[in-house]
Amino acid sequence: MNKNPNFNQLPDRYLFKEIVLRSQEYSRQHPSHRLLHLGIGDVSFPLSKPIIEAMHKAVDEMGGAETFRGYGPEEGYSWLRQAIIANDFNPRGIDLELDEVFVSDGAGSDLGNLNELFLPNNRVAICDPSYPAYVDSSIMAGREVLQLPCTPQNKFIPELPRERADIIFLCFPNNPTGAVLTRQQLQQWVDYAIKQKSIIIFDAAYECFIEDSDVPHSIYELKGAKQVAIEVHSFSKSAGFTGLRCGYTIVPKETGLQAMWLRRQSTKYNGTSYITQRAAMATFSPEGRKALNENICYYRETARILSDGLKTLDFEVYGGKNSPYLWCRTPKGMKSWEFFDLLLAECQIVCTPGVGFGEGGEGFVRFSAFSKREDCKEAIKRIQQKKIEK
Question: How does pLDDT run across 4-48, given as a tens digit for each residue?
Fold first, then answer.
């Protein structure tokens, strides 16, 4: 047996696993201290009533002989895919065919699994910093990774690659920096991909937080994008499905990859559960949409409060608008993990070290507005009391 040697190039521990372990160790040594979790992007709201009701009904159906459902379509039930097209794309002038929509167990799985459509000798362009799964999954596949620096100097907007990139991972609104692309800026990437015959994997997990009218919610709002882009969506942040797991991926036929992805899913994936898909379907009801919008507005305001509080303490902060994430420079030239440990020890605050998102993230930390608003306010208070200032 020959093991995959590419795994040797990965860090010993996944970023968020390391955060959990350090937080748990601190709590073990200081059981009376309450930690404020502003790091991992898990939601603080439970599932809304319309979603719970839909799941209860689906469970009852699974208990009846006439309404029981076994294996469902690997690409998802048609009624959910039709609702996705009608609600998330048609209102933006985007027409999709039903068999271009694939329901899955979350964006994270699809972002990694899409690597299977391409040979190892493809060069991958990835923003630095970026969500770790893009880089890690590319390294596992044995690909050359081309880093695209995203810094305050370029407003965290990467420049087009000078070398040819076969595959391009883009995430906007961006995790972790909170940056966004205007239509004009994103069109440049689509034009590049068309010219180079590249493919863009567009992570749109945070599109529900977009407020500015000039920021596209979908890459398919841009001319020619269906030729060169796969788009990945998630119910995790918008509907609170982080523990339930559901997302969807759009693979247009014009990319030449739709049939391959269908074949891959048919072989390796038995489909998202009926109960989960009924829960996702409930998010498109008037009651479900109202509940989602209320949660999103709450997180947007929480991001604003957290951003204003950090800026009041003279921290250099980016993001927080059109995005649930804040990208904060560490004080006094501290390293990312050094500042993480300081906040944990002195303020009992858990953030995410920026270097975990790539070398370009060194000297920054990420704060998440998915936390409870009271915890965000308390975090600002603790930082001020401990005189941790820039």
Answer: 988 888 877 778 888 989 999 999 999 999 999 998 777 878 899
Mean pLDDT along residues 157-170: 95
Mean pLDDT of 263-279: 95
CB 227 within 8 A of CB 194: yes
The residues pairing with 168 across neighbouring beta strands, listed in sequence order, are 125, 200
Which phi and psi angles does 379 have, rounded to 5°?
Answer: -60, -45
pTM of the shown model: 0.94
Query: Which of these, 280, 170, 284, lies nearest to 228 by C-alpha position?
Result: 170
What is the secondary structure of 312-344 as a DSSP string?
A: HTT--EEE-SSSSEEEEEPGGG--HHHHHHHII
Closest alpha carbon to 42 in 286, 375, 321: 375
Instruction: Specify the pairing of strand 317-319 against strand 325-329.
Output: antiparallel
Residue 329 tokens, joined: 């420079």
Beta-carbon count within 10 A of 257 CB:
17
